[in-house]
Every structure is written in structure tokens, then in C-alpha cells.
Amino acid sequence: MTAALQAARSPERVKGPERVKGLQRVNSDHHSSAKKQLLVVGNGMGSVRFLEKLTEQHGHQYQVTVLSEEHCPGYNRIQLSKLLAGSVDLQGIQLQPESWYQDQNISLLSGSDYRVSALDLELKRVETEGGQSFDYDHLVLATGSLPNRIPVSGADLEGVMAFRNLDDVEQMLTASSHPEAQAVVIGGGLLGLECASGLARRGMKVTVVDTMPIPMARQLDEKAGNLLQEALEETGIEFRCSAMLDSYTGEDGKVTGVQLKDGEWLQASLVVVTAGVRPNIELIRETELEYDRGILVNDRMQTSDPSVTAIGECVQLNTDLFGLVAPVYGHAEVAVHRLLGTSGERFEPVPIPTSLKVDGIDLFSSGQFVARENDEEIIIDAAGVGIYRKLVVSDNKLKGALLYGDASDGLWYQELMETGQDISDIRDRLIFGKRYLSAA
């Protein structure tokens, strides 16, 4: 544990299997209580939101047990980049302290021994790496996602890593503490840029390598992408855009650099791969649960087994996968309502806004940011002062919003998109934002 994370450790933090062995006995005799046994696998953001909503709805008919392979209660994974940058501490990203689980009579079992290794749908039982078994009446799978690996030579070298959890942050902090340390971040998407910014703030020389011509090409147009790249370059981050990775080089099992297909070699003692994620469905591959890219669910988050619910990044609804927190929270709320029978609420995907969590950069993107046939673009281009706005309108409805330099109206534009409001009366002033309309 690095000094930075050690200092932030909460005194109530779960310290591993030995810290919670006594809790196992609470769940060891399932038939000693009239309550149904609800077992939750995973303690990420979706799981915590599910537990919060369940307790808010007074789900007292369930005895809840949570199995988590990480060694601390669930935390805000979105804020890992700020933890890396040093702008928040570990306690500041914790979603609920251990005491909250105790107060809610939730048995939280944390640590590598509680990683679930097998699931038996017929017996309604899971087994863990530590040899324990847990029966359930209802199971909630919140197993999240796994980082994609790029299958090139050198991918197994020490120092080539992903950016998904606290252990990854700890490894990066250790690497950044060495003098003259250099890092290469593979991927210029949201996570890659946040990682690069955090490492740069820790004093590392950082280069971002991306196959796309601009950063965040899936959320930004060329103008906004260029503005973002210029702003990040001013912080010392270098870019290699439209670049293809060839291999990682190393000595004595440790990474020393990144070889690009155009012949350039980039020195690196740390390589962080942010090439997207895939649903973590390893647990259910040998079961009868239906899956495709993710665990298949309906719009009430029910799997092909009525006793099993799945939420979060591990699921697939129709053809959709979910890698952002807003729909994951929606999954959690729908799942609670179905479990308790309190409503017929169903999950409906909506446009999800994107905002970059880098200090000093104000950016918002949501919906369709490139006009299609018969669409109209409304633009303010004040790139000289770092302001750029684009709205896409179709049939008097807002279809997309892209804001750089001042994203204060982002949530208002998001509301207009979600509600499908007719904007014909405010069409000529829409680009100036809600405050301008209110003042007028």
C-alpha cells in the first residue's frame, strides 16, 4: 500500500477475509430465519445503489449477503482518476462505510477468498475461492466488466496494466514515484485521458497513443477534439493520434517501451491500456443462464432464470451493453422494484451525457453530435477564447449537444432531449443556454 492510499484508508475499512469471518455464521444456516436469502455478487457502484434502494424501500423480508473480491466496501470507480491525480482521497470516494452495512443488517464479505468461483442454478448455491458455499432464494449478479487486452507481443510484461480498481491506482502511484518515470497510455477515450491527466499531475511524462485522429472521437467532433487536445498538451501530455500499436518492448520481464507500426518507439516504464471493457460473464459461462456478449436480461433486469437478477456492466438488454454509471443506476432501481413487487417499472435506455473529469477542462457531450440528412446544426465557435457549442436539431427537437469551455447548460439540454420537448419557440435562442432565456 502506497503512502498516498495508506493515509486515506478509512478506519472502518474491511481488511480482508479474516476481518469478516464472524459474519459468515450469520449466513451459514439459511433455514434458521423466516427471511428469504438474498445473495448479491459484487459490490461495485450498481450493487451499492441496489442495496441503498432496497433499504429505502424497506426490503426487510430479505436477509442480504454481499460477496466482494475487493478488500474494501464499494467505492465510486468514476473518481479513481481524481484519486490518482490527488484531488480526492480514498475516504472521499467510498460510497458507504462498513458501518452502514452493519446498520442495515447486510453481511458484507470482502476479500479474495470471497471471489465467487462457481454457480449452481439448480441447487441455488454459489461457491467461493476460499471454499465457502452460500445458498440463496434470489441471486443478484453485479459482476461488472473486465478490461480488454490488446493481443500484441509483450502484453504480459510487468508494467503493462489496466485502470479499473484501487490496486491499479496503487501500482500507478508507485510507478510515478520513480525519478524520470515515463508512461504511455493506450487509448484516447474518456478513461485514457483521465488516466493520462492524473499521471501527469503526479509528475510523469505521459504520451497518449490512439488510433483515432482526435481524442474522444466517439463523443466529440473535430473542432472540440482539437480544442481538448491543445488544452491537454498545455499540461505536458503528448499525443500520437492515428497511430497503431505494434508491440511492447521489455527487459528482464519489465516493460521498457511501446513500438508503433510507423516505426516510432516510445520509452515507458508504465503502460496503461484503456482499450474499453467487456461484460464479466466468466461466472455464468458453465451455467444454463442465457448470454451473448453479456448476461441477457429483459427490461426488468430478469435473466433466463427467474431466481436470478443481473444489473450493471455485466448485462445485455437486446443488443445494448452498458458502460456508464447512469444506466447502471437505472438497472438497480428497476431490479429493486421487481424484487419487492412495488411497481411495474421497466428500464429504458436514454442518451447518456459524457463529461471529462479533468481539472480545468469543462466538457459535455450527449446524444447525436453530428448532423444527419435533414438535421440542423446550431453552432457558436469562439475557439479563440476556448468556447465551442454545437446543437443538433431535428423536427423541432433537440437531438444532441456538444459543449466545450462552458458546460453549465449541459443538464438542461439533456432534459430537453430526454423529454422530447418542442423547442420551436426558443429555437433562435437555444444555443445561448437556459440562463439567457431566463434573463430574456
Strand segment count: 24
The CATH homologous superfamily of the largest domain is named FAD/NAD(P)-binding domain
Mean pLDDT: 90
Report the CATH C-level class of the largest domain.
Alpha Beta
The proportion of residues forming helix, as a percent range, comes to 10-25%
Radius of gyration: 23 Å
What name does the CATH topology of the largest domain carry?
FAD/NAD(P)-binding domain
Q: In this structure, how is the largest beta sheet organized?
A: 5 strands, parallel
Question: How many helical elements?
Answer: 12
Strand order in space, largest sheet:
3-2-1-7-19
Briefly note the structural class of the backbone.
alpha/beta
Low-confidence runs of at least 5 consecutive residues: 7-32
**CATH architectural grouping of the largest domain:** 3-Layer(bba) Sandwich
Q: Please, how many domains? A: 3
Secondary structure elements and pairings:
Layout lengths: L2 H6 L12 H4 L11 E6 L3 H12 L5 E7 L11 H6 L4 H4 L4 H6 L3 E4 L5 E5 L4 E4 L4 E3 L2 E4 L3 E3 L12 E2 L4 H11 L5 E5 L3 H12 L3 E5 L12 H12 L4 E3 L4 E7 L2 E7 L4 E3 L2 E4 L3 E3 L15 E3 L10 E3 L4 E3 L7 H16 L22 E5 L8 E7 L4 E8 L2 E8 L5 H10 L14 H6 L1
Parallel strand pairs: 1-2, 1-7, 2-3, 7-19, 9-16, 10-11, 10-16, 11-12, 18-20
Antiparallel strand pairs: 4-5, 5-6, 8-17, 13-14, 14-15, 21-24, 22-23, 23-24
Helix pairs in contact: 3-10
